[in-house]
Amino acid sequence: MNAPETPALSIQGLSHSYGARKALDAVSFNVAPGSFTVLLGLNGAGKSTLFSLVTRLYAAREGEIDIFGANVMRQPGAALRRLGVVFQARTLDLELSVMQNLIYHAALHGIGPMEARRRGNIALARAGLADRANDKARALSGGQMRRIEIARALLHDPKLLLLDEPTVGLDIKARADLLAHVRHLVREEQLGVLWTTHLIDEISDDDPVVILHRGKVLATGRAADIVARYGASNIGDAFTRITGADEEKISA
Amino acid sequence: MSDPETSLAPFTLRQYAICLWGVVWREGLRFLHQRERFVSALVRPLVWLFIFAAGFRQVLGISIIPPYETYVLYEVYIAPGLMAMIQLFNGMQSSLSMVYDREMGNMRTLLVSPFPRWFLLSAKLFAGGAVSILQVYAFLLIAWFWEIEPPTYWGYLTVLPALALSGLMLGALGMLLSSLIKQLENFAGVMNFVIFPMFFASSALYPLWRVQESSPWLYRLCALNPFTHAVELIRFAFYQKIEWTSFAVVAAYASVFLVAAIVAYDPARGMIMRRGG
User: Fold this and answer.
1) How many domains does chain A have?
2) Hey, which end of chain A has fewer CB within 10 Å, N or C?
3) Which residues of chain B make contact with A83, given a CB cutoff of 8 A?
4) Are residues A26 and A103 part of one domain?
């Protein structure tokens, strides 16, 4: 096991540009094991770029990304094995059954179909979808798909889970359910979670929060501490004061 | 859980095999579920065979050239070109599905796997090639009823390695293109700038000596076209012979396309990065 002081995710001095446009500028923050860390930012803040770099879609040229001490560029295999990801876009194969989706993902992590089925059944039961194993993914609701994607991302037993705006497109109840489900996983499984969002109401007082704005980290800390530090009435108010953004933009 | 399968030791050979199996299995399932794709992959060469070739039979005379030992009907002549065409379309279609996949996230799911990226891309190519071979054999089954068949049934077996190599080459070309194409609605562009020139400037529809008679310049272009060599490799293999030049050319193009595709998808050097994925 890793020593408790090793962060689940460590990002140090990370910068990235698309041509002349700087999408990330010297971004640094950590996600502790067993924490529900929220990355808060408006659309275009650089959240998706950050995701692409951590998942190694393209290379981090400036700065370091470590997953439980394994560097994403230098030891990609070791780093990616400890990582589970739920992308913003839906990534289930709609034509395949739920279990087939899980078996495919397991194979991508070197886990055979028998073991995948065993783990898949446990994961589906945990997600409350045990009876949907043989249904086509197409038949699921948006909230159910997200739960399956989370179950799938955890199939190879990672201790860090990244979710990129997972509640986009879900109705209010599905959003609340999903949030509760992931918080439950954090408590029960000691999972380190990085949850990106632009929705203030998904944040609890005790959550570590990273505020990302136009490629820069403007504040990090416990949500309640950030609120207190800026003399704000709530985290939304604090976000407005920190970023100088318009009120409407945040609540949108 | 300290399950051996989630330990952080390097992947075993067995785990590589599982990963490869998984990618091929998924491609096979998707293929089975996309009947329209299968049917259109089959109808396209059949249209060429039954309409185009029948119409041109009287116009184009084919002299006796290797591997043929007698005069052959035009349908017989173009059959290998149509087999290669199936693979060409399959390669381009899977390249477009990769563009689509990348946008929809499936390609990202593949690339976030901890296996080395060259292995993942090769597995994907292998899977696409296997699907294209299935399509070719389905075509050959129908063509058999029209007496388009190898001199002995062994031809069905000897054509397999040729199909594997040409499928790899065309798949790798498609994969390379997928890293360059930005939008998925660009299939028309791929048709105009890749599929049509490759298909028409090749020995698929007419032997190259005929091209040479009309235009030495076009002849040289056809002789350089990788698709020409894929067609000739398949044509000879179907007749239980090896065309060594074509074999070498197809193998060389396949390696170049594959390496270029792997570089294009390399996170540090790749094209996706410059574009911003």
Assistant:
1) 2
2) N
3) 112
4) no
